[in-house]
Amino acid sequence: MMTNLFSVFDPSAIFNISLNWMSTFIGILLIPSIYWLMPSRYNILWNSIITVLHKEFKTLLGPTSHNGSTLIFISLFSLILFNNFMGLFPYIFTSTSHLTLTLSLALPLWLSFMLYGWINHTQHMFAHLV
């Protein structure tokens, strides 16, 4: 007997572990295929997507930016892409629609951007307030 309407989205039957967060780590299953001898079409497509994103972020951030900043943006993009793609399958609750994952990703990024802007570009930050 189902007591709650939303208990459908809480699959905790196996080993008493909530399986909602399993969709977050689904990209780990795709990593070993990178180390095969002959790259598959999937690997070639993913590498071309990564290089195009790296070039785009490099032009957006400028030539003085560090290479690690594009890695952070591309990895966040990949995490959100995999999680939202898992939401297309029926009866799978994605973790990106949960408030804890959204706040844990967005709040540190927003706070670091604001602190960096106020410390290094104070005039520009005041200009945006006007």
UniProtKB/TrEMBL annotation:
Q: Cite the PANTHER family for this sequence.
A: ATP SYNTHASE SUBUNIT A
Compartments where located: Membrane
Source organism per entry reads Drosophila polychaeta
Protein name (Swiss-Prot/TrEMBL):
F-ATPase protein 6
Task: Give this protein's Gene Ontology molecular function annotations.
Answer: proton-transporting ATP synthase activity, rotational mechanism
**Mainly localized where?**
membrane
Gene Ontology CC annotations of this record: proton-transporting ATP synthase complex
Superkingdom as given in the UniProt entry: Eukaryota
Q: Which family does it belong to?
A: Belongs to the ATPase A chain family.
Tell me what topology the record assigns in the membrane: Multi-pass membrane protein
What keywords sit in the KW lines? Answer: ATP synthesis, CF(0), Hydrogen ion transport, Ion transport, Membrane, Mitochondrion, Transmembrane, Transmembrane helix, Transport
The residues that cross the membrane are: 20-38, 71-93, 99-119
Q: Which Pfam families match?
A: ATP-synt_A (PF00119)
